[in-house]
Amino acid sequence: MPIDIGMNDKARQSSAQALRVLLGETYALYVKTHGYHWNVTGPRFNSLHTMFMTQYTELWTALDEIAERIRALGHFAPGSSSEMLEEATIKPDNGVPDAEAMISNLVKGHEAISRAAKIGLKVAEENNDIVTVDLMTRRADISEKTAWMLRANL
């Protein structure tokens, strides 16, 4: 059945592609944050363990929202880890960094998500895709706030 939401196929495709990039960055940061939750050590273990859990839970919820928006635009969301990570600039760690490096890496990850969301926001604006504009704005807001809170721990 044709999709008639006020956007042509090309506009829906480019918005979906911007969302794929955001999904990739979000997935990469989700995996990193969850791994840090499991492996953080040191005198701030309890507070960081709890903070990382809050963050990876929020990222997991965001993944669903982003993927469902891709589907609403008439495109398939990536269905495997490798497919999601194709678009990610956030790279996995080799080994387990110390707590300070974990925090610093997460700051950089949230900043990468904010950048991807802002690029996606411009694409969505050009496509008159106000739903994706809203999603991108919320993702940038949450990532920037989270990066600020993480920096406060350094």
Automatic annotation (TrEMBL):
<dbReference type="Pfam" id="PF00210">
    <property type="entry name" value="Ferritin"/>
</dbReference>
<dbReference type="InterPro" id="IPR002177">
    <property type="entry name" value="DPS_DNA-bd"/>
</dbReference>
<protein>
    <recommendedName>
        <fullName>Ferritin/DPS domain-containing protein</fullName>
    </recommendedName>
</protein>
<comment type="similarity">
    <text>Belongs to the Dps family.</text>
</comment>
<dbReference type="GO" id="GO:0008199">
    <property type="term" value="F:ferric iron binding"/>
</dbReference>
<feature type="domain" description="Ferritin/DPS">
    <location>
        <begin position="17"/>
        <end position="153"/>
    </location>
</feature>
<dbReference type="GO" id="GO:0016722">
    <property type="term" value="F:oxidoreductase activity, acting on metal ions"/>
</dbReference>
<dbReference type="InterPro" id="IPR012347">
    <property type="entry name" value="Ferritin-like"/>
</dbReference>
<dbReference type="InterPro" id="IPR008331">
    <property type="entry name" value="Ferritin_DPS_dom"/>
</dbReference>
<dbReference type="InterPro" id="IPR023188">
    <property type="entry name" value="DPS_DNA-bd_CS"/>
</dbReference>
<dbReference type="InterPro" id="IPR009078">
    <property type="entry name" value="Ferritin-like_SF"/>
</dbReference>
